[in-house]
């Protein structure tokens, strides 16, 4: 399958140039001008690697990287015009996989992308991205949920919530954790989480008032029970 690289870069010409070189290598690209849009796309799209500019309008690259790390383990290559080593160290300190300084040769960047994709592919190949519970099959890599082979329509937030719970089945996640993970924020209205849990239950559970899969851990949060109701077919 073709790899997809997300370029978060506020200068369209630079993004186009990177995109051009990656396409030559048979890599698909997506582009956003801001970190906020990039994070949004990361939840919906199937992204394999991120090329992240540091000087961005709004949220800067470091902030974006911290938020990416709360969601996913995918490789991030930082691109920055600031020459200071501090940038580089900070970048690695919060989980960047590679660093390229501007101005850069697109050829060199493309080679780095290839190397990082290869490394992460080796790292992930042992991980199974599919998980089944009751009549459902969830593919967290390709982002779909099927019941008896039929795809169910979930909103991006519902899918993100289910994927977060499926990361470690049977393990309860607090509302705070889920909120931080999905809404990229450590503060906010936690009832948002329970509202989305209810929506998810309505789509998945036979009796949403008596859930078999999306269970409540009382006084704490929620967890995914993969054994569920054995009688449900
Ligand atoms: Ca910039």
TrEMBL record:
GO terms under biological process: regulation of DNA-templated transcription
User: Which residues, as ranges, make up the DNA-binding region of this protein?
Assistant: 128-226
Q: Name one GO molecular function term.
A: phosphorelay response regulator activity
Domain called OmpR/PhoB-type: residue spans: 128-226
Query: Which UniProt keywords are given for this protein, alphabetically ordered?
Result: DNA-binding, Phosphoprotein, Transcription, Transcription regulation, Two-component regulatory system
Top-level taxonomic group:
Bacteria
Q: What is any one of the record's Gene Ontology cellular component terms?
A: protein-DNA complex
Positions bearing 4-aspartylphosphate: 53
User: What is the recorded name of this protein?
Assistant: Response regulator transcription factor
- Pfam families linked: Response_reg, Trans_reg_C
Q: Which residues form the Response regulatory domain?
A: 4-117
CDD domains (alphabetical): REC_OmpR, trans_reg_C
């Amino acid at each position: 399958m073709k790899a997809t690289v997300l370029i978060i870069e506020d200068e369209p010409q630079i993004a186009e140039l990177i995109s051009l070189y990656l396409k030559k290598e048979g890599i698909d690209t997506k582009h956003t001008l801001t970190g906020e849009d990039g994070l949004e796309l990361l939840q919906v799209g199937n992204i394999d690697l991120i090329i992240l500019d540091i000087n961005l309008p709004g949220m800067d690259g470091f902030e974006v990287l911290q938020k990416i790390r709360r969601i996913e383990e995918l490789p991030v290559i930082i691109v920055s015009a600031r020459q200071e080593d501090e940038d580089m160290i900070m970048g690695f300190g919060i989980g960047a996989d590679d660093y390229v300084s501007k101005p850069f040769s697109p050829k060199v960047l493309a080679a780095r992308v290839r190397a990082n994709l290869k490394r992460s592919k080796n790292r992930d190949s042992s991980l199974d991205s599919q998980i089944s519970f009751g009549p459902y099959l969830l593919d967290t890599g390709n982002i779909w949920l099927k019941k008896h082979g039929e795809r169910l329509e979930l909103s991006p937030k519902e899918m993100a919530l289910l994927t977060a719970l499926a990361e470690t089945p049977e393990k309860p996640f607090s509302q705070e954790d889920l909120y931080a993970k999905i809404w990229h924020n450590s503060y906010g209205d936690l009832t948002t989480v329970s509202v989305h849990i209810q929506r998810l239950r309505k789509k998945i559970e036979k009796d949403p008032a008596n859930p078999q899969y999306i269970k409540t851990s009382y006084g704490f949060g929620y967890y995914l029970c993969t054994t569920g109701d054995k009688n449900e077919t």
